Amino acid sequence: MPPFRYRPCDSYNRHWADRVLVVGQGLVGLLVTAFLRASGARVMALDVAPARRALAHAMGAEKVVIAGQQDLRQEVRAWTDGFGIDAAVLRASASSNGHQPDGAWRFCATGAGLVVVGKTKVDLPWEYAFGKEIEVRFSRSYGPGRYDPAYEWRGRLSIGYVTLDRAA
User: Fold this and answer.
1) pTM for the model
2) Are residues 104 and 138 in contact, defined by beta-carbon separation less than 8 angstroms?
């Protein structure tokens, strides 16, 4: 495990060579894409802006889908040989349940992980999540200390956020 870890990437029980859909390729989404790729995951990126395609590829996405220009269902089916994604990381700022977040959970394989990063609205039907045994986790967008007034206003990091990886 690398000495620096990014919380959204550690928020599901990933395995080497998992196929992960990263929804949203802004700054945080690109970081998630890069960290997942560096850890051995295979990454498909989804965004609404065609201009982000080249950057998402450069950050490690092996496949980039532009919403509204490509059929996400067909792209996921082809990319996963019909099995579905092992995990989805939702990093698309949204106050409504638009096409980005809504599409990701529909393509999860049974037992997949779904990580919601930051302020992203997700209306996940209970019956669907239960039927697929989807594991849902929420993660702060910028890691430890985010949304903690002691950290953001006074620079003090609570001990509960500190993780030490010690070699045996």
Assistant:
1) 0.78
2) no
SS3 100: helix
Which two three-digit tokens encode residue 10?
């550690």
Tell me the pLDDT tens digit for each residue of 68-102: 899 999 999 999 999 999 999 988 765 544 444 45
CA distances to 24, 49, 135 from 69, rounded to whole Å, are 15, 10, 29
Q: Which residue has the tokens 């070699």?
A: 167
With 0-12 CB in 10 A as exposed, 13-18 as middle and 19+ as buried, what is 24? Answer: buried
pLDDT of the residue at 101: 46
Q: Under a CB-based contact definition with an 8 Å cutoff, are residues 44 and 65 in contact?
A: yes
CA-CA distances (angstroms) from residue 79 to 82, 85, 128, 129?
8, 9, 22, 22
**What 8-state DSSP symbol labels residue 134?**
P
Residues sharing a CB contact under 8 Å with residue 14, sequence separation 6 or more, in sequence order:
20, 36, 39, 41, 86, 87, 113
Tell me the two tokens of residue 53: 């395609």
